[in-house]
Amino acid sequence: MIYAFIFLGKLFEVAISTIRVVLTARGNRVVASLLGAVEIAIWIVVTSTVLLGISEDPLRAVAFGLAFAIGIYMGITIEDKLALGLSHIEIIAEFYLAKRIAREFREQGFGVTTYDCEGLEGRKLSVGIKIHRRDVPCAIELLRNYENLFVTITDIMKLSMGQIGRHSIMKR
């Protein structure tokens, strides 16, 4: 029973910690701080349970270590499923193809910015789309209908103004 307590407590604590780190990196101070408070409370209880009985029962440390490793994996998986935050998709393609892509995304309600650029083989168009991370798989599916694209996807830490999907963001 004590092993299950240590394992599950540490697993939960590390999963929370992993999500907190991601939220901190994205500038979400309030939620990250609240998760940090929960995380440290769990850590104190679980760690003291391990340390108080480690000399008589070293398997407590094994449960603690295994839960740590699995907790990191679990935290990353949970954060990936939550898909919090925003991303920027940049597509570089032949001019007329990029125009079609921009039109398709605009018809889907996304804010799209285009600008001329030049590649090795001449004139290109860059299509920039700010998007909720949860919508990235849908955007990738739309892009699979086209060939000869150069696509990059990056996370956005903050956005103060602009069009995201079907929602305007106006923060000061």
Query: Radius of gyration, Cα only, in angstroms?
Result: 23 Å
Number of strands: 6
Count structural domains: 2
Strand content: 25-35%
Q: Report the top-level CATH class of the largest domain.
A: Alpha Beta
Order of helices and strands: HHHEHEEHEEE
Estimate the mean pLDDT confidence.
88
Could you explain how this protein is built, in words?
By secondary structure, the chain is an alpha+beta fold. Strands 2-3-1-4 form a 4-stranded antiparallel beta sheet, with helices on one face. It has a two-stranded antiparallel sheet with strand order 5-6. The longest helix is centred in the N-terminal third of the chain and has 25 residues, at 29-53. Helices cover 55% and strands 25% of the residues. It starts with a helix and ends with a strand. The protein is built from 5 helices and 6 strands, in the order H-H-H-E-H-E-E-H-E-E-E. The protein is elongated, with a radius of gyration of 23 Å. It folds into 2 domains: 2-82, no CATH class; 86-170, Alpha-Beta Plaits, CATH 3.30.70.120.
